[in-house]
Amino acid sequence: MTRSEIIIDLNADLGEGVGDDEAMIGVVTSANVACGFHAGDPHELLATCRAAAAAGVRIGAQVSYPDREGFGRRFMDIEPARLTADIIYQIGALQAIARSVGADVEYVKPHGALYNSIVAHENQADAVIDAIVELGVDLPLMGLPGSLSLRRAECRGVRVIAEAFADRGYRPDGTLVPRSEQGAVLTDTDEIARRVVSMVEHHEIRAVDGTVMRIEAESVCLHGDTPGAVEHARAVRNALAAAGIGLAAR
Q1: According to the UniProt entry, what is the EC number of this protein (predicted)?
Q2: How many of the other CB atoms lie within 10 Å of CB of 207?
Q3: E-only strand ranges, 109-158
C-alpha cells in the first residue's frame, strides 16, 4: 500500500465539559460523545452533536459506568444484566439527541475503566456486546486491538474498529499503562505526532519498557482532556498530511 492509499480516522472524547470541544471538532473525523453517565448533560450533548453534525464529523456513543464522581475511571463490579441495560440506555439517549440535529450514532466506544475492563473481563465484555446486539442496529464496537471484547464481538457478528492512542503509554502486552503509573500520559507534542505517523505508516509503537510492538488500528484517539490537547491534535493532523496519509471516518 502506498502512502496515498493509507486512510486513518482521528477520534476524540467530547461532550465531557472539559477541554475545547469546538477546536477539536475542527480537527478530528470522529467524536466519541459522552452519554451523561461519566460526564456531560443533555444541553451539552446536544450542542456537541450539533457541532459535529455541522462539521461532518461522525458521532459515536461514549458509554460508561455510572460514575460521575470518578469521571468513569474507576472499575465497577456491576451485574452484567444491569450493565447491558445501562449501555442500551446511554446509546438510546444519545441517538435521540443526534437525530434531533439530523445525525446518527454510528459506533460505540466504552469510556475509561469500562474500556479497559472489557479488554479481558468476560462478563462485562459480553454485557457491552449484548447491548449492541439487543438494539438490533449496525453499530461497530471501537476498542483495543486484540482485546477480548473485539474478538467476542466479531464472533457475534458485531463489526469492530481497532483503535490506537496518540497520547497514552502502552505496556509490552499491548494494554494501556494505568493513569496512576508513570508514563501513562504523553504530553510532548512532537513526540505524539511522530508516534502517530509511525503507528499508521509502519504499524509500530514503542512500549514504556522500550519494546517495539506491532499495532493495527483503523482509528487513533486524541484525548480532549490531555494538557495541550488541541495543539497535539493539530500537530498530529499536520504530520499525517505531510506523510501523505488521508483522514476519514472508517
Answers
A1: 3.5.2.9
A2: 17
A3: 141-143
